[in-house]
Amino acid sequence: MATQIVMNHSGDTRHNFDPTDMRAIAEAEDRFKELTLFGFTAAVRTPSGEVAVTRAFDPTAEETLFLPRLVGG
Fold first, then answer.
1. CB 44, CB 64: distance < 8 Å
2. How far apart are CA 1 and CA 38, in angstroms?
3. Is this model's pTM higher than 0.85 or not?
4. Domain that holds residue 8
């Protein structure tokens, strides 16, 4: 099971999807595109355990974390 974690002002929302289900992958990809267009930064954990920003949807990523745009004041 893959997970997309969307951080927001109240914590986080998790969206799980089956990476073998084409319909679930399409929904996850649409969510990825929508969030990144809205200004969220997407990050995934690399095989070496580090975190890397990603600009493309990867259905094989175990977790994708979406961080909202930070606005300075």
1. yes
2. 25
3. yes
4. 2-67
